[in-house]
């Protein structure tokens, strides 16, 4: 033991809910602050934008990405793109974020996209499936930072009973295996529940294997 600042609490054991694996408090407060600083650099190169749905309505969530591919949406549809709407390649996935994927999912392929969603007060994300990726054997890993978000889980088709849980700052959630194609979304965020982001709101990162 070194007795230095490097020590941290053991990583949490996952709680399973409908096949999703929830790791409450995976990241220490120091790790969360370091991620936010890395994300500021990503957003400086690839600014957050408000995607338009293919149906012509702006999403309430603002987005950007890091990695070889970023997720975009406009009147042409949902897809992965090698460039930001401003025309530039996406910045690399920060090593601090990649390290979480490697620690939680040592057997998975390398992530090719880190989608960054910013929820200001009032923003939400309707129930949807993540199915723009080519290989559904590969999980999606989600990291929550900032204010609490109420995450809703449905079924493999629209409708039916749903269940919800609060995702808090520092939580990691793995959507893989039988849960990979379950409908999910964010009902709402709870403003003022975290001091991590000076402007408030919630950041969610999803790491994805695209091809
Ligand atoms: O914000 C979240 O926790 C979920 C985000 C999500 O489902 C997505 O970006 O596809
Ligand atoms: Mn999703």
Question: Would you kindly provide a written description of the structure presented here, covering whatever features stand out?
Answer:
This protein has helices at residues 29-45, 95-104; strands at 15-17, 20-23, 62-66, 70-74, 77-81, 113-119, 125-128, 140-146, 148-153, 163-167, 172-175, 184-190, 202-208. With 211 residues, it is mainly beta. It has a single domain (15-208), classed as Alpha-ketoglutarate-dependent dioxygenase AlkB-like (Jelly Rolls, Sandwich), CATH 2.60.120.590. The chain has a 7-stranded antiparallel beta sheet, covered by helices on one side. The chain has a 4-stranded antiparallel beta sheet with strand order 7-12-9-10, with no helix packed on it. The chain has a two-stranded antiparallel sheet with strand order 4-5. A hairpin with a 2-residue loop joins strand 1 (15-17) and strand 2 (20-23). The protein starts with 14 loop residues before the first strand and ends with a strand. 2-oxoglutaric acid (AKG) is lined by residues 115, 117, 125, 130, 142, 149, 151, 167, 184, 186, 204, 206.
Summary of the model, kept short:
By secondary structure, this protein is mostly beta strands. It contains two helices and 13 strands. It is globular and about 45 Å long.
How many domain modules? Answer: 1
What does the largest sheet look like? 7 strands, antiparallel
CATH architecture: Sandwich
Order of helices and strands: EEHEEEHEEEEEEEE
Enumerate the spans where pLDDT stays under 50 for 5 or more consecutive residues: none
Helix content: 10-25%
- How far apart lie the N and C ends? 42 Å
Average pLDDT, all residues: 96
| Number of E-state strands | 13
> What is the strand content?
25-35%
Q: Say which molecules are bound, naming each kind only once.
A: 2-oxoglutaric acid, manganese (II) ion
Give me the number of helical elements: 2
Give the overall form. globular
- Strands across the major sheet, in which order? 1-2-11-8-13-6-3
What is the C-level CATH assignment? Mainly Beta
- The CATH superfamily label reads Alpha-ketoglutarate-dependent dioxygenase AlkB-like
Task: Please tell me how large the radius of gyration is.
Answer: 16 Å
């Amino acid at each position: 033991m070194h007795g230095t600042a490097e020590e941290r609490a053991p990583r949490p054991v996952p709680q399973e809910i409908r096949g999703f694996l929830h790791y409450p408090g995976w990241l220490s407060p120091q790790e969360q602050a370091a991620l936010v600083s890395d994300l500021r650099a990503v957003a400086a190169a690839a600014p957050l934008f408000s995607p338009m749905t293919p149906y012509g309505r702006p999403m309430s969530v603002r987005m950007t990405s890091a990695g070889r591919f970023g997720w975009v949406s406009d009147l042409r549809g949902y897809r992965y793109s090698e460039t930001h709407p401003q025309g530039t390649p996406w910045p690399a996935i920060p090593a601090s974020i990649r390290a979480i994927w490697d620690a939680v999912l040592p057997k998975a392929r390398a992530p090719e996209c880190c989608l960054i969603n910013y929820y200001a007060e009032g923003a939400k994300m309707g129930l949807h499936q993540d199915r723009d990726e080519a290989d559904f054997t590969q999980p999606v890993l989600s990291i929550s930072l900032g204010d609490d978000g109420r995450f809703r889980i449905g079924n493999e088709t629209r409708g039916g009973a749903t269940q919800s849980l609060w995702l808090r700052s520092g939580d990691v959630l793995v959507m893989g295996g039988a849960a990979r194609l379950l409908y999910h979304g964010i009902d709402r965020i709870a403003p003022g529940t975290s001091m991590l982001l000076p402007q408030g709101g919630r950041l969610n990162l999803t790491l994805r294997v695209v091809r």
